[in-house]
């Protein structure tokens, strides 16, 4: 912590240099390293480079910050068509300057490891980056902060815009529930710090005693993300349902029960006539001030219905203000603990006779699936999010929304050349238009080669218009994939 604190002394001036309009020469090192557990890393496997490439949208800030040079670190080069796509979205007069101020630093390593760990094993690349920074103000912008990110920052002698790794457990499911409750944020009935099947048995009995009408429980691994450590156990109206749930726990895979020994939570499976999964994204400045940046409706799916697939911005107006208030309270509690940088809070919202009810689920001390869409909006449609009114107002007074996903996927799209996808979107008139401030921004195009997957952010004046843009893009790419192949000579 002492060494980390010494690095952090330079964070405030480095962040100040990165403000819109700043001409102070400085370097922003974007390190989208998914420093997470091995089981989760292996789940993403070949998709890791594509997930890293989501954060290449950071290049869109360069026209707004003339003094900034961006170093984007990745384990594989992004498709040239993707870089060209982003350059096409900046003012023509700024494109040459933006290209000069972007350096993609590739760490060539195909192992299923975080890119920070890969870079740490390449002292020659770290030294090259250090020479490139050359003593200018600089900071590291990681996805999350572990010992690997801190070691790279130490070798570069630059601060980190994030929370010290010693505080990382604040984002674990058990600690997060306790912090939310302590900040006055309602949480579902549940039990923290379960480690064994017997602990789960007791927790299930406790939840069903307190909430006899509960539809079931959710078992969550403490150190997990994107819903991949969540298991939904439903009662399904069965007699002796507590025993039924206990049997289901004993049928979980060995790897899951092993991971559970490190800790987890059991909480009520919240249901309602209407159900939503909103979230709050906030930022804690180097001096501890909290800003609510955005609220979202998360789109969840997967076999458990708990896996993050995309989002809609902003959250529903019925509860957006209350959501922002809870998100700020959580951020202030985190700041008092010493957390800094980006954070997120996931909620569940249910509607009943008395209106909407919000309950906090978990805290993320890192960037997430809502970070890169927000980056797109902030840099292409400069303005601010008003947490009291629950909307984004651009500098010209217009209101904007977006719909975003990392999971437009079809096996029939596998192998589609990114250049052809970009060109097809352009021909359909779907690409973001700076004049109307409406349109689509693509990302993750390298995922097409892996499993026919890519992502996008669709910006429009209304949620319905943004969703329509997403659907039109889906149809556009589908037509491209299914076009007749010309016969050879």
UniProtKB/TrEMBL annotation:
Query: Keywords in UniProt for this one?
Result: Ligase
Alphabetical list of Pfam families matching this protein: PGM1_C (PF18105)
The record's section on InterPro entries has: IQCH (IPR038752), PGM1_C (IPR041356)
- Recorded source organism is Geodermatophilus arenarius
What top-level branch of life does the organism fall under? Bacteria
Record carries keyword Magnesium: no
This chain's protein is named Peptide ligase PGM1-related protein
All copies of domain PGM1 C-terminal, residue ranges: 420-473
Gene Ontology MF annotations: ligase activity
Q: Which SUPFAM superfamilies match?
A: Glutathione synthetase ATP-binding domain-like (SSF56059)
